[in-house]
Amino acid sequence: MAFDKKLLEILACPVCKGKLQYDKEHSELISTASKLAYPIRDDIPVLLENEARELSLDEVEKWHS
């Protein structure tokens, strides 16, 4: 089962309340504003700041383009 794109439209970053982008390759939701990547486990996004990893500057730039 793939991650639901419709769900992505209504989800927001819990830190900045901004939009999230889906990273299929790493199974994560990306917040460039907060510079965080939230994991998706068993098709369920884990939108907890303490579970997220920090994005590198290169990763943030990649998602801005």
Automatic annotation (TrEMBL):
<dbReference type="GO" id="GO:0005829">
    <property type="term" value="C:cytosol"/>
</dbReference>
<dbReference type="InterPro" id="IPR005651">
    <property type="entry name" value="Trm112-like"/>
</dbReference>
<dbReference type="Pfam" id="PF03966">
    <property type="entry name" value="Trm112p"/>
</dbReference>
<protein>
    <recommendedName>
        <fullName>UPF0434 protein CWC19_11410</fullName>
    </recommendedName>
</protein>
<comment type="similarity">
    <text>Belongs to the UPF0434 family.</text>
</comment>
